[in-house]
Request: fold
Amino acid sequence: MKPEVLKGHLDSILLAALEPQPLHGYAIMEKLRARSRASIDLPTGTVYPALHRLERAGLIESDWSTVSGRRRRTYRLTTAGRRKLREDRASWRQFSKTVSMLLDTAPAKATP
Amino acid sequence: MKPEVLKGHLDSILLAALEPQPLHGYAIMEKLRARSRASIDLPTGTVYPALHRLERAGLIESDWSTVSGRRRRTYRLTTAGRRKLREDRASWRQFSKTVSMLLDTAPAKATP
DNA sequence: CCGCATAGGTAGCGTTGCTATATGTTCGCA
DNA sequence: TGCGAACATATAGCAACGCTACCTATGCGG
Reply:
């Protein structure tokens, strides 16, 4: 999967990953890689800035912890984040339906 | 529909619009607006540069003409453009399936 | 004559994801 | 003992992309 097509959808995907339970950045990457059968394999330079962006936007919150000597920053959805995810799901459905239709072989005229 | 989600998919949409028959830029905008029931309403500052990009990439070709006093630049797909469109359709299906799956409520663990 | 639809164009901007690089820990294995 | 892989986070700088805002020009209806 070409990387650039993700643009504009990454945030929703990250929020969705955090919906069932809080996760730290590295765990999010693994989860997405697993659930997408490796077709989404995000580099750290994409995930961490994106998480910071989402936190600045108030959609997620984080806490530091240390697990077996390693520092972890665990993120969870805020109320605004859950709301945003709901909206994102709706607009994804709309978007994906529209693009699918436009990519279908278009009739030359109004199906004459 | 938020504009930025289009990123990475605009090219495919333009190619698809040109598949059944050659069109000029303005006509493409109208066609997409009509076929998407106005949910895709591209500004000229998006369409024209994109068409130039596609032409530079060898995916479309153009000819100038004049229709009732107005200069028109009519674009048509090249062979490479048709091939690209075929590939784009395949990767769109893959992409859309993947994102739809990831946006579905994710199980906390492996559905225990 | 004014304004709208038609038709094309560019400059500059902001967002976004990526590459590359950095830091530090733990663990397996040779 | 030492070395690399996995774990874990982070940032600087880049390139691509679509958008806003603006410009030019014609034809037509009111």
Notes: Residues 4, 7, 24-27, 44-45, 48-49, 52, 67-68, 70-73 of chain A lie near DNA strand D (CB under 10 Å from a C1'). The mean pLDDT of chain A is 91. The radius of gyration of chain A is 17 Å.
